[in-house]
Amino acid sequence: MYKAIVIEKDDAGYRAELRQQDDSALPEGDVTVRVSHSTLNYKDGLAITGKGPVVRRFPMVPGIDLVGTVEHSESADYKVGDAVVHTGWGVGEVHPGGLAEKARLKGEWLVPLPAAFTPTQAMAIGTAGFTAMLCVMALERHGVTPDQGEVLVTGAAGGVGSVAVSVLSKLGYTVVAVSGRPEETDFLKELGASEVLDRAAFSQPAKPIAKERWAGAIDVVGSHTLANVCSQMKYRGVVAACGLAGGMDFPATVAPFILRGVTLAGVDSVMCPRDERIAAWNRLARDLDASKLEMISREIGLSEAIAVAGQLLEGKVRGRVIVDINR
Question: Of 24, 51, 183, 207, whose CA is between 20 and 30 Å from 199?
Answer without folding.
Answer: 51
